[in-house]
Amino acid sequence: MNEMESKPRMSRHHEVGLTDDQAIDMYRTMLLARRFDERVLLLQRAGKINFHVSGIGQEAAQVAAGFALDRTKDYFLPYYRDYGLVLSVGMTVRELMLSVFAKAEDPNSGGRQMPGHFGHKKLRIVTGSSPVTTQVPHAVGLALAAKMKGEKFVSFVTFGEGSSNQGDFHEGCNFAGVHKLPVIIMCENNQYAISVPIHKQIGGRIVDRAAGYGFPGYRVDGNDPLEVYQVVKEARERAIRGEGPTLIEAMMYRLSPHSTSDNDLAYRTKEEVDENRAKDGIPKYKQYLIDAGIWSEEKDTQLNVDIRAIIDDATNYGDKAPFPTPESTLLHVYDGDSEGGRA
Amino acid sequence: MPVMEYIEALRLAMREEMERDENVFVLGEDVGLKGGVFTTTKGLQQQFGEHRVMDTPLSESAIAGVAIGAAMYGMKPIAEMQYSDFMFPAANQIISEAAKIRYRSNNDWSCPVVIRAPIGGGIFGGLYHSQCPESVFFGTPGLKIVAPFTPYDAKGLLKAAVRDPDPVLFFENKKCYTLITGEVPETDYTVEIGKANVLREGDDITVISYSLPLHFALEAAEELQEEEGISAHILDLRTLQPLDKESIVEAVRRTGKVMIVHEDNKTGGIGAEVAAIIAEELLYELDAPIMRVCGPDVPAMPINPPGEKFFMLNKNKVKDAMRQLAIY
């Protein structure tokens, strides 16, 4: 780390296998996720929407992971802060805004679920719920299907460090380890489960749990997208070779409160938050791209303008889109009940 | 037509569905080489291999959750819970996930999983090998729940469950496994989910039930007809969710006197909902108060023989209640 700070390796992104364009595209996606998130916080504060759960501070790792996967084949099981991940794998800001405003056209849930509860079958983003970590066994089941059908895809699942204490994390990991399934299990360790800090959540280290399930675990700096990219890419290669699962613990910090209903300064200090804001992965990565000679402040200014236009358009679109009809509440309990009756 | 045990019919249904569709597979504890603790899956691993008849870790939430994940891909998993008493660790996966996947994704995703679980007592299983957990899952829209009482229904309903596009809880009765034999066609038939079945026509009283107690009711009805001239109309719910309201109403209207029988305890059981439907739809057509004959409201049945006998229904208990209703 110190060596890198004193003398940046200008071609680090090449070393991990990213072209200049891909490296820039990653940055663009992170910044898009950040600006989207900031806008939605404003919309909530302005009373336009009811609720937002933020992913600010976690975008670098989310986007890097998305870029390291096969976005035409793999299955993604995000948790509720993964705006960066779902944007990386093809969800649009309009689609996210439709979910934020709970509108009928929202592909995630048709305006049924809270924002951050992703799902998009065409993009292989698997529908999720609020009880945490239930998605880990689902990812294992998708990986089992890959193995049974001889298909070359992996499933990629994320969750927070608090969630890693749920039985489903352990049961899912164990099942995947026994059957050597192509699943990548990534904990976004943002140091807080709502108000409970990491030292009251976990006695040891999450990454070390991998050993107990018989597969490798890697702890990475979640604020360093190139490190995350590399470890996820290698995990994918192992999975495709039939060598089984990988656990990744990406270290990061939740810069936002847990949700718009949370006052985080009741349990942590502004100084602590500011200290971590200085480690934010996005400005650091921007500086890397500038130092590498493939990005500039001028380009950055233009990118911010472009992103603002995308978000303005999406906000407007989401705001104006119609709500679901009240009666549509009765639909899709079972297959074929589109007339509103029970199957 | 071949005559076989209830458990053989279940095995045959799985074999036929696995032969028909390579996406069908079985997973659970001890289902592989051993063929299940009751032998329900005996021989299947030998025929279809380890990957399609998979011994899982002892881990019910993973059995359900992995099956759900595979089902979302398009596989057709049959997940076995060794005893329904042990499916509670999987309850979050069943209730929060399987039941809501279609609804919460606005019909984008679906979860065609079958979860098989043996219910019921009378086998000296004590508190935790005897329960009827159907009321825990009943009332969760998005789940279908079936409970066969004959080999014919066991095969037909299991095949229908495998082909169903939504999650189905398949509650097979462990006391029926080898006790009940019956004719089972060799043909590829299914029993429609969501439809109740009239087992016996009669004019004096109506008995509505499902699973093992139907055998007691049928036997009692024959004796009451012969000995006392009481004519009983018997309806098998077959599917507990969604309930076949039309058939319930029709069966009650036939006699105006109704009794609901199940082994699950009385309070909050399926019978409570059936009674509520009857009260809503045709209270003033009743000639007697609705009667329920159920397991007592204790946590679960004891293992000591007098205690188990006290808890369990049998022909005489059902017969006495039927007579009481008839003479009301």
SS summary, helix count of chain B: 13
- Discrete helix count of chain A: 13
As a whole number of angstroms, the C-alpha radius of gyration of chain B is 19 Å
N-to-C terminal Cα separation of chain A, in Å? 60 Å
Sheet of most strands of chain A: 5 strands, parallel
Number of strands of chain A: 7
DSSP strand count of chain B: 14
- For the residues shown, what is the average pLDDT of chain B? 98
CATH architecture of the largest domain in chain B: 3-Layer(aba) Sandwich
What is the CATH homologous superfamily assignment of the largest domain in chain B?
A: Thiamin diphosphate (ThDP)-binding fold, Pyr/PP domains
H/E series of chain A: HHHHEHHHEHEEEHEHEHHH
Summarize the amount of helix of chain B as a percent range. Answer: 25-40%
Number of domains of chain A: 1
Low-confidence stretches of chain A: none
Supply the CATH architecture of chain A.
Answer: 3-Layer(aba) Sandwich
**What would the principal axes of the Cα set say about the shape of chain A?**
globular
| Classification by helices and strands of chain A | alpha/beta
Radius of gyration computed on alpha carbons of chain A: 20 Å
Q: Structural class of the secondary elements of chain B?
A: alpha/beta
Question: Cα distance, first to last residue of chain B?
Answer: 42 Å
